User: What shape does this take?
Amino acid sequence: MTDQIDYHVSDCPVLAVVIPCYNEAEALPLTMPRLLDVLDSMIRSGAISADSYVLCVDDGSRDGTWQCIAALHASDRRVRGIALAHNRGHQYALLAGLMTVKDECDAAVSIDADMQDDPNAIATMTERYRQGAEIVYGVRSSRQTDTWFKRNSARAFYRLQNAMGLQSVYDHADYRLMSSRALDILSQYREQNLFLRGIVPLIGLKTDIVTYERHERVAGESKYPLAKMLAFSIDGITSFSAKPLRWIFMTGLTLLLLDIAVAVYVLCSYFSGDTISGWSSIMLSVWFLGSLILMAIGVVGEYIGKIFTEVKARPRFNIREAIK
Ligand code: UDP
Ligand code: MG
Assistant: This one.
């Protein structure tokens, strides 16, 4: 890594707040004053630099979100904006924002445009950053405002993801602070299928957690209907785990062991004479060949799993500290 970059946690950091926005023209005018208030009070207390700013990422909106961002910029220069050429989805919009601010801030906080995540937690996150944490996760203290269905389906997916070997932080969405060094490391994860909640824990470094209350949207409606949420969760698993491929082999192996019992049963029936002609040979070959075929697919799966991790070309290690 470069020697010139000073990665030490800054005492008076330039903070960038990154907001992915898709059709948020209703919410942004309500959201921005609240965020700027939070920044103002942090600047006054000396917690962050006066150069801190907000970056809105317009994710190909069709409702005048960009005009809204431009108007907000005209009234306060601390509001910046970038517009993606088309709608790429929350994760990509967020990454675009984080990579834009990476070299122009000491730390960045990502937050949704709808103020469901309490912006006051930004102050606590920054405090933890100043105490040395380079990644601070915002974790919901409760899911009271979510529907019963959303609460339980989310829990089921966390469990499934963990069982698949994906380490995500429970009840953490994408509300988090990352230091510029953490962002630099993030930029080295070049995978196309983006699931930031799974990648960020892979970065390592010193982390901390801040809990906050989750509220209702300030305005507009959710851009994550059930179908999108489901696709997102499945993406999460398939972008991180080759385990399902290994299960094919294990299933084949289990069937092969079961074969022994089946073979004993078939042979007993055969020798006791109460079978019709051809049944025993078909039974034995169906079971035996079935398990062999599954195991063969599983072996191919092992290689596909290797290709899957190779093509991601993720960094093989991240350095935390060095003494020179
Ligand atoms: N978002 C985005 N691109 C999309 C969908 C959503 O940038 O294609 C943004 C959206 O503007 C919001 C955040 O992602 O700031 C989270 O979306 P939302 O609040 O609708 O999701 P929910 O909280 O309902 O899960
Ligand atoms: Mg929301």
About this structure: The longest strand covers residues 172-179. The pocket of uridine-5'-diphosphate (ligand 1) is lined by residues 20-22, 24, 59, 87, 89-90, 93, 112-114, 116, 222-224 (CB under 6 Å). The chain has ten helices and seven strands. Residues 1-5 have pLDDT under 50 and may be disordered.
